[in-house]
């Protein structure tokens, strides 16, 4: 059986978790530095962090002006089913957006979250700012 790091990345890319979002999560865990190259890469890494309950990474990638005081781990039985990035765009050098659909299942009931997220880059680091659910 494959280790979770060898399985396809939860973000939807064909690469393994270790070669995709896992690189960002591991680098953060080792150094405290955030290294996503784009708003889309950050959004994908955040989805993978939700799947894997990487709460410290989620907190760190959330902009300080909108960051919740704490996050809770996934509810027991929650199964993340996939991520689809619909569209993304760059407004200027330091502002971008990503529209996505994330699917999960809890207690036998499928759920779908469609959001247009806003991102801001400060000192070369991308942060999730907020999102509008559609």
Compose a concise summary of this entry.
The chain has one domain (4-133): Nuclear Transport Factor 2, Chain: A (Roll), CATH 3.10.450. A four-stranded antiparallel β-sheet has the order 1-2-3-4.
Task: Give unreliable regions as ranges.
Answer: none
Q: Biggest sheet: strands side by side, in what order?
A: 1-2-3-4
Q: What distance separates the N and C termini?
A: 38 Å
**CATH class bucket:** Alpha Beta
List the helices and strands in order: HHHEEEE
What percent of residues adopt helix (DSSP H or I)? 10-25%
How would you state the average pLDDT, rounded? 95
Counting DSSP E segments of at least 2 residues, the number of strands comes to 4
- Radius of gyration (CA) equals 14 Å
Please report the number of helical segments.
3
Query: In this structure, how is the largest beta sheet organized?
Result: 4 strands, antiparallel
Beta content: 35-45%
CATH topology: Nuclear Transport Factor 2, Chain: A
How many structural domains can be distinguished in the coordinates? Answer: 1
Q: How would you portray this structure in words?
A:
By secondary structure, this protein is α+β, with helices and mostly antiparallel strands. The protein has one domain (4-133): Nuclear Transport Factor 2, Chain: A. The chain is built from 3 helices and 4 strands. The chain has a 4-stranded antiparallel β-sheet with strand order 1-2-3-4. Helix 1 crosses helix 2.
């Amino acid at each position: 059986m494959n280790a979770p790091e060898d399985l396809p990345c939860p973000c939807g890319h064909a690469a393994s978790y270790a070669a995709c979002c896992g690189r960002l999560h591991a680098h953060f865990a080792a150094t405290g530095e955030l290294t996503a190259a784009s708003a889309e890469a950050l959004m994908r890494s955040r989805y993978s962090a939700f799947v894997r309950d990487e709460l410290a990474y989620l907190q760190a990638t959330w902009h300080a002006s909108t960051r919740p005081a704490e996050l809770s781990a996934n509810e027991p039985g929650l199964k993340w089913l996939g991520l689809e990035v619909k569209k993304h765009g760059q407004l200027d050098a330091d502002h971008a957006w990503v529209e996505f659909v994330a699917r999960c299942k809890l207690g036998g009931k499928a759920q779908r979250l469609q959001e247009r997220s806003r991102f801001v880059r400060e000192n070369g680091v991308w942060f999730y700012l907020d999102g509008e659910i559609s």
